[in-house]
């Protein structure tokens, strides 16, 4: 499993948790379907869970006339993963984190999800 696939699995796990209020272990079992978990997937899931409040504050601070709860679940989940990577994983270049979030949004989100995510992440990065 490459890092893109690991990100997609982490996205699916966190999306399940966000929308169905289930425990991380149960979401992992559901998404992984018996497949061995990739360490990067586990890092992203546990990292987002651990720093969720700080991540959500960082995202919320860049939203104009929006609240975090009004953002589509796909976009919110991808933003959380990307902000975790940007703020808490120094081994991943910021451009890679942003690009990966945009590309996954194009696949799983709505028509303008990629542009929205790019805008929010660009603001977060420029404020650092």
Structure explained in plain terms:
There is one protein chain. With 128 residues, the protein is mostly helical. It has one domain (3-127): NusB-like (N-utilizing Substance Protein B Homolog, Chain A, Orthogonal Bundle). 73% of the residues lie in helices and 0% in strands. It is built from 7 helices and no strands. Helix 1 (3-20) crosses helix 2 (24-32). The longest helix has 18 residues, at 3-20. The protein starts with a helix and ends with a helix. Belongs to the NusB family. This is Transcription antitermination protein NusB. Residues 4-125 form the NusB/RsmB/TIM44 domain. One of its GO terms (biological process) is DNA-templated transcription termination. GO terms for molecular function: RNA binding.
Please give a handful of descriptors for the protein shown:
128 residues, N-utilizing Substance Protein B Homolog, Chain A, 73% helix, 0% strand, globular, transcription antitermination, NusB_fam, NusB-like_sf, transcription, transcription regulation
């Amino acid at each position: 499993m490459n890092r893109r696939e690991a990100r997609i699995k982490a996205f699916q796990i966190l999306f399940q948790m966000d929308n169905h209020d289930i425990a991380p272990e149960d979401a992992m079992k559901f998404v992984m379907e018996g497949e061995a978990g990739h360490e990067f997937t586990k890092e992203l899931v546990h990292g987002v869970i651990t720093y969720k409040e700080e991540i959500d504050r960082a995202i919320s601070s860049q939203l104009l006339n929006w609240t975090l709860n009004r953002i589509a679940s796909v976009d919110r989940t991808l933003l959380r993963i990307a902000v975790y990577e940007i703020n808490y994983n120094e081994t991943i270049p910021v451009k890679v984190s942003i690009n990966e979030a945009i590309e996954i949004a194009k696949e799983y989100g709505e028509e303008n999800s990629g542009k929205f995510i790019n805008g929010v992440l660009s603001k977060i990065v420029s404020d650092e």
